[in-house]
Amino acid sequence: MSKPPKRPAPKTQPLRDPAQKKPDLLHPRNRHQGRYDFPSLIAVSPELGAYVISNPYGKPSIDFADPQAVRVFNRALLKAQYGIAHWEIPADFLCPPIPGRADYLHYLADLLAEDNAGSVPRGPAVRLLDIGVGANCIYPLIGHRDYGWRFLGSDIEAAALASAHGIVSGNPGLGEAIELRQQHDARHIFHGLLHADERFHASLCNPPFHASADEARSGSRRKWKNLGKLDPARKLPLLNFGGQSNELWCEGGEIAFLKRMAAESKDVASQVLWFSSLVSKAGNLDDFRRALKQAGARQIRSVDMAQGQKQSRFVAWTFHQPEQRRAWYG
Q: What is the C-alpha to C-alpha distance for residues 275 and 192, in angstroms, rounded to an integer?
């Protein structure tokens, strides 16, 4: 009797080095290409030096499981790359991965360029709406520094807006570019937020991904395990990158939020050229597209992004015909 063929050994994924980004995966205009330059970051933000460690590859990095280390690291990145001298957020609020947030803005800029004769629109005449600006105010900071855009940032959390206000007021010149406004009705996204005479070239959103706090904590444990950080002897934060309830979960989870956004966007379609939102779970894309078609969206675009091994995407939609979109730029 012949022996059964020998099965190949299962492939294993190497431990990801968070300090090494793949430049071919980030948008070409993204400032965060290649490996982080820790000496340069420490030179502009000396406090970072206390948090630099040697990773399993023998390269300088930080402990991405330490929320305080991530906050200090982000502060150094924003100061070195964008000239943001003051950036403080309260403990336990979402501390976002900056390169990925920048990619969303750059790809959104490419989308706007399609209606502007292929040229990325720049300057204060371009205004964007950030749904859920959060305590970190990250999209307005990057979007203004890279493209000179103006922003309206909305949030339902007064504490988050207070933090964002502190960042804006702590950096000269941002007050003219970034306006912050509270959405007082948690049942709505656009309704009751916009003034009748306001117009925006685009909206963007990082929606709550989970349906409950338990689901958010479970997701964080999976991420720590994938990063090789799930050490039973070590107490890790419950939520990676921090995050408050409205930042991370809502009733019905991400798809419920996206469907509500699709339905409400129809009612303010005349005020926004392109709506957009990150979609964390690829399994939600089909349901979201159906909701957008039901709302009457004339065009729906899905844009894939990647940072290292992390895959993400955003969906953009518009209620305007091509000639109407071109006319938006005058």
A: 17
pLDDT at residue 115, as a whole number: 96
- Asked whether the predicted pLDDT for residue 15 surpasses 50, the reply is no
Domains and CATH numbers, the chain: 94-327 (3.40.50.150)
More confident of the two residues 117 and 9: 117
Name the helix (H) or strand (E) containing 158: helix 158-169
- DSSP letter at 321? -
| 121 CB-near residues (< 8 Å, 6+ apart) | 109, 112, 113, 147, 201, 329
Distance from C-alpha of 32 to C-alpha of 25, rounded to nearest angstrom? 11
Write out pLDDT tens, residues 136-151: 999 999 999 999 999 9
- In single-letter form, the type of residue at position 58 comes to G
pLDDT digit string (tens) for 288-313?
999 999 999 999 999 999 876 778 99
Q: 70 is written with which tokens?
A: 């991530």
DSSP 25-57: TS-TT-S--SB--HHHHHHH-GGGGGGEEE-TT
Which residue's structure tokens are 């950030």? 130
Query: For residues 280 and 317, which has the higher predicted lDDT (pLDDT)?
Result: 317
Cα–Cα dist 61/47, whole Å: 14
What's the whole-model pTM score? 0.83
Q: What is the mean pLDDT of residues 165-183?
A: 97
Structure tokens at 189: 């996204």
Rounded to 5°, angle at Cα 102 from 298 and 181: 70
Torsion region of 132: left, alpha or beta (phi above 0 gives left; psi -120 to 50 gives alpha): left
**146 CB neighbour count, 10 Å cutoff:** 19
Tokens of 290: 């159906």
